[in-house]
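Q: Given only this backbone (313 positions), what sequence would you predict?
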């Protein structure tokens, strides 16, 4: 039966990742047609599109009363994206590039603040509707601040015909439905695997599910870097992390409150906030993102393995 549950996870996450990529493609075409600056497209539309697996997972996990799967995946995705995914960009993208202080400092500080609020809200072990509402407000406020301070566009928008727009809307909605179905299947498989191996759901979600649900961000960001679209890549990574540390983690409990493992949630949130401050300092000090700064971020991600395992034991 273990092989069957693993198959559920792989197929479910695979379907969610592939469908979210198609949703991103069609939604991006619409956004470019609206002449939105590339950085803001990455920060909002691309971020929401690539974050759909996490959002679907949050809702499904909370409704099924498995809050640790939601919190573990959302916090794990936040940290995975700003360390592992961002670190892999100059390596897989096969080029170094200038990030720019104005593209990193403000988003990193806002996300770090959101993680601090999460630690404060979840220390009682209950993820309530009020907590979810607070995080939703933080996402709206953080997005507003980033829109206000967004850098000037670095590339022109493209025009899209009316017929093409209708097709893109329909294709986006269909892809969203597949994302939800895939996430439901994956959550069911994760629950069964956690029981089969006797592992905490939080740990499985933080390291396993988070990598799977962060694949859309990695694929989109690497593709953007190889195409010379730095703003799309950086905007998507930090926009998705902003979502994961607010809307994504809060939307499930807003629908169905759950209990969670407080010590793991608080420790990972606070450590994640510290990691964001390190990243902000690193990217501000060395504005050019090279394979060496990438390896530093990957090492920062790897440090979470022994940390959470020690806390769990």
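A: Predicted residues:
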């Amino acid at each position: 039966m273990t092989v069957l549950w693993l198959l559920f996870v792989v197929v479910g996450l695979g379907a969610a990742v592939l469908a979210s990529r198609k949703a991103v493609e069609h939604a991006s075409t619409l956004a470019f047609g609206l002449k939105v600056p590339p950085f803001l497209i990455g920060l909002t539309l691309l971020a929401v599109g690539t974050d759909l697996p996490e959002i679907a997972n949050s809702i499904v996990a909370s409704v099924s009363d498995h809050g640790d799967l939601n919190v573990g995946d959302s916090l794990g995705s936040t940290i995975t994206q700003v360390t592992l995914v961002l670190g892999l960009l100059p390596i897989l993208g096969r080029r170094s590039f200038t990030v720019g202080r104005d593209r990193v400092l403000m988003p990193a500080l806002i996300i770090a603040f959101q993680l601090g609020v999460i630690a404060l809200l979840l220390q009682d072990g209950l993820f309530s509707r009020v907590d979810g509402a607070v995080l939703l407000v933080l996402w709206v406020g953080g997005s507003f601040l980033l829109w206000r301070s967004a850098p000037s566009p670095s590339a022109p928008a493209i025009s899209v015909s009316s017929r093409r727009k209708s097709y893109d809307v329909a294709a986006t909605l269909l892809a969203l439905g597949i994302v939800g179905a895939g996430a439901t299947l994956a959550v069911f498989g994760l629950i069964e695997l956690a029981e089969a191996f006797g592992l905490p759901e939080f740990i499985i979600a933080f390291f396993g599910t988070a990598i799977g649900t962060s694949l859309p961000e990695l694929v989109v960001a690497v593709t953007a870097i190889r195409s010379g679209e730095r703003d799309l890549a950086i905007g998507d990574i930090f926009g998705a992390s902003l979502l994961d540390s607010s809307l994504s983690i809060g939307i499930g409990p807003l629908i169905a409150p759950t209990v969670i493992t407080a010590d793991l949630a608080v420790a990972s949130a606070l450590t994640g906030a510290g990691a964001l401050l390190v990243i902000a300092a690193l990217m501000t000090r060395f504005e050019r993102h090279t394979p060496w700064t990438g390896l530093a971020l990957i090492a920062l991600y790897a440090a979470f393995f022994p940390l959470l395992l020690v806390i769990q034991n």
